[in-house]
C-alpha cells in the first residue's frame, strides 16, 4: 500500500502534485527540529512531529494553495491575469 504522500504524487490534480515537495520539506524540517529539541534522532512519523506538521500545513495551507495555483498558471502559459491581492480600481 502506498503512503498518502506517494499516492498524492500520482494524483491527477497538478496542484496537489506541486504541493507535495513543500509538505515533504515541512516534514523534514519538523523532524529535524523535534530531534534538536530532544537531543536525539526522531522519526518523521513520531506523533509530535505529525502534530507540528499538521499545525504548519493548516497555518500556511491557504497561502500555499494560492502560490502553487498561481505558479501552475504561469507555467502553463495561461493568458489569464493573475491577481495577487485585492483589486483596487484607480478610477473608483
* Structural class category: mainly alpha
N-to-C SSE string, H for helix and E for strand: HHH
Number of strands: 0
Q: Indicate the overall shape.
A: elongated
Mean model confidence by pLDDT: 79
The DSSP helix count reads 3
First-last Cα distance: 57 Å
Radius of gyration: 17 Å
Query: Percent helix among the residues?
Result: 55-70%
Low-confidence region ranges: 79-92
Q: Which sheet architecture does the biggest sheet show? A: none
What does this structure look like?
By secondary structure, the protein is mostly helical. The chain has a domain of 50 residues. It is built from 3 helices and no strands. α2 packs antiparallel against α3. The chain is elongated and about 45 Å long. The termini are far apart. 5% of the residues are buried. The C terminus is likely disordered.
Features:
92 residues; mainly alpha; 3 helices; elongated
Q: Care to give the gist of this entry?
A:
The chain is mostly helical. It has helices at 4-9, 14-38, 47-75.
How are the elements arranged and paired?
Elements lengths: L3 H6 L4 H25 L8 H29 L17
Amino acid at each position: 500500500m502506498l503512503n498518502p504522500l506517494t499516492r498524492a504524487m500520482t494524483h491527477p490534480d497538478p496542484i496537489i502534485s506541486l504541493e507535495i515537495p513543500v509538505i515533504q520539506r515541512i516534514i523534514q524540517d519538523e523532524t529535524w527540529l523535534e530531534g534538536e529539541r530532544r537531543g536525539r534522532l526522531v522519526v518523521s512519523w513520531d506523533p509530535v512531529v505529525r502534530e507540528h506538521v499538521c499545525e504548519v500545513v493548516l497555518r500556511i495551507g491557504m497561502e500555499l494553495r494560492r502560490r502553487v495555483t498561481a505558479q501552475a498558471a504561469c507555467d502553463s502559459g495561461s493568458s489569464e491575469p493573475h491577481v495577487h491581492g485585492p483589486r483596487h480600481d484607480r478610477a473608483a
